[in-house]
Each structure stands twice: as structure tokens, then as C-alpha cells.
Amino acid sequence: MLKEFKDFIARGNVMDMAVGIIMGAAFTAIVNSMVGDLIMPVIGVLTSGVDFADKFVALDGQAYDTLKAAKDAGAPILTYGVFINAVINFLIISFVVFMLVKGVNKLKEAAEKEKAAEAAAPAAPPADVQLLTEIRDLLKK
Asked: What is the distance between the alpha carbons of residues 25 and 44, in angstroms, rounded to a whole number?
């Protein structure tokens, strides 16, 4: 059973998956920082500092000044503002990931075109073949 486990772990696809998960976690931190630290402050300025997180509806019919007051009172609430923030974050993160994938795909396409161009170009014959060709051409004269 231990040997089977070692074989399972040693498979390439398991290691690729592990690397993908680690890179995904690191990438998530970068994207979250980009959204939270760079993009959301700009959106906050553009929307005059409107914070959707404080938008809510109290289902008990009472009026509360803040979300905290409604939560402290134990009122059932719909926090639609938190949902709006989550949708905005999702759209921004999706767009950032789209742009990154698009950039990576462009780089891959350029590398593939370069490889295709190298493969299409005839390879120069080895030096000894060139020398023999030159000798042959000289002997023909």
C-alpha cells in the first residue's frame, strides 16, 4: 500500500496539480491586493465614497440608523450592499484575470510563431557538408 501511495504521489499530474494549487493561492493574494489596494480606492473616488456594505433592509419593519445597530438589535436583515460589493469584486477580478490570460496567450502565440518560423526555415547544412559542396563546385570548374 505504501508503494502504491508513492507511485500515486510521483505521478506528474498530481505534482502539476499541487504546483497549480500553490500558484493559484499566490495569484489569489496578488489579485485580491490589486483589487482592494489599487482598483477599489479609485472606484470609491469615482462613486464619491459610496460604501455599499452599509446598505441593508430590516425585515422586522423597524428603522435602524446603521447595519451594526440592526445586527445588535437582532433584527433579521437583508444586506444587499454586501452582495453588490461581492458582485463588483467578482467583475473586477474576472476582468483582471481575463486581461492576464489574454496577455499570457499573446506571449504563447508569439513563442509558437517563432518556433514555427524556425521549423519552416531550412536548417543550414553542417560545416563538413558545406566544405564538400564547395570542393565539388571548385572541381567542376
From this structure: 27
pLDDT one-digit tens code per residue, 69-119: 998 999 999 998 888 888 888 888 788 788 888 998 999 999 888 888 777
Query: Both ends of the chain: CA-CA distance in Å?
Result: 76
Q: For residue 80, what is the enclosing H or E element?
A: helix 80-120
Give the distance, in angstroms, between the CA of residue 6 and the centroid of all CA atoms in the same chain: 31
Amino acid at 68: K
**What is the pTM (predicted TM-score) of this model?**
0.56
The H or E element spanning position 114 is: helix 80-120
Here the cell at position 19 is 504546483
